[in-house]
Design brief:
Distance between the termini: 16 Å
Number of helices: 17
Low-confidence stretches: none
Radius of gyration: 19 Å
Oligomer: single chain
Shape: globular
Mean pLDDT: 91
Largest sheet: 8 strands, parallel
Strand order of the largest sheet: 5-14-11-10-9-8-7-6
Length: about 350
């Protein structure tokens, strides 16, 4: 475990990397659909991705929550995303047991497949089920190929070993070789140990996946940190890194799954917002790191527009501002905020 001085120096080194500032002064791009949001390179791959990815779990929840089972909000979020220049879309086989993928197959891919980077995931624990999920995903999303297919939510070193033993990694590699998926990666938010063990297994086998999706927020460096412990190892192997839970699933802003919560007033006498932390600060901190894209879900058009405004307002972040924000966030770090982390897993 790095001491605090080492962590501070490490974070400054990461933030000063070319990847962390690559899009700030880039010339605006467009495609046949209109102006595009900025892009970054996906790790070692010779390909770029929109630096903002729309999260698929919330796209599904928005349709259910806003219209009692109708899906008008889902369609509206997709259309507004395209209008605002978003070209990267996340989902997973497990979001509503395929419901999110089916929404994409209805509203996204028939109109925009040639213009987007499409990602999905499977949490299946054996090779046969992984293959079945892949065929479901291709059919439901009405596509012949998935741009990024991910091993979903590794939980522990033992979980990693079990997935290897049960043929999960073999099926992912086979799907890439077959051309059914272009890139492959893994995700997780429970245990830094799981991520590090996955990377060790991959190195021992001489295998490189392409991407990793993990929590990256202002509170993360203060508690069982993916940023300080896992990110350096990913960068050594040229992974494209996707940030998620940048606002700690909304908990830093006083919500959880769209519902108001109050985690901090009783124990600390204040909240992150009262302390001066905003959603813009949280997103800008993530953009200041060498990620390829920030994956964020939205329940409303207003949420989406705010996220895009935050991106467009990003002009880089110097070390003084980064240290200030990390210091403001420190009192709010810990297992109550990032309840998905299980440090002993």
């Amino acid at each position: 475990m790095k001491n605090m001085t080492d962590r501070r120096a490490f974070l400054k080194t990461l933030a000063a990397s070319a990847a962390a500032t690559s899009f700030v002064h880039a010339k605006p791009k467009s495609d046949k659909l209109g102006p595009l949001l900025p892009t970054r390179k996906i790790g070692r791959l010779d390909e770029e991705i929109c630096v903002y990815t729309l999260g698929g779990s919330h796209v599904r929840k928005a349709g259910i929550a806003q219209f009692g089972g109708e899906i008008k909000t889902t369609e509206a979020l997709i259309e507004k995303s395209i209008e605002l220049g978003v070209r990267a879309f996340d989902t997973a086989r497990g979001y509503g047991q395929g419901e999110s993928e089916q929404f994409y197959g209805r509203f996204l891919t028939p109109r925009y497949r040639d213009h987007i980077y499409l990602t999905t995931k499977t949490g299946a624990s054996d090779g046969a089920k992984v293959r079945s999920h892949l065929e479901d995903s291709l059919r439901w999303m009405k596509t012949d190929v998935i741009d990024l297919w991910q091993i979903h939510s590794i939980m522990s070193p033992q979980d990693v070993d079990n997935r290897w033993k049960n043929g999960v990694i073999d099926e992912f590699l086979k799907a890439r070789d077959e051309g059914k998926v272009r890139h492959i990666g893994f995700t997780g938010h429970v245990s830094t140990k799981a991520h590090l063990h996955m990377l060790k297994r991959l190195r021992d086998e001489g295998i490189k996946l392409d991407t990793c999706l993990m929590p990256m927020s202002l509170v993360d460096p203060h508690y069982d940190s993916f940023i300080t412990e896992v990110l350096p190892e990913l960068l050594k192997d040229g992974y494209g890194v996707f940030a998620m839970k940048t606002m700690a699933h909304g908990r830093l802003l006083g919500t959880d799954n769209g519902k108001p919560i109050d985690l901090f007033t009783e124990s600390l006498g204040t909240t992150p917002v009262k302390a001066g932390l905003t959603a813009r600060h949280m997103h800008h901190y993530a953009y200041s790191l060498p990620i390829c894209s920030l994956c964020s879900g939205c329940m409303t058009i207003a949420d989406l527009e705010e996220n895009i405004q935050n991106l467009k307002a990003y002009k880089g972040m110097d070390n003084e501002e980064r240290d200030r924000l990390l210091a403001l966030a420190k009192p709010f770090a810990g297992p109550e905020t990032e309840r998905w982390k299980k440090s002993k897993a």
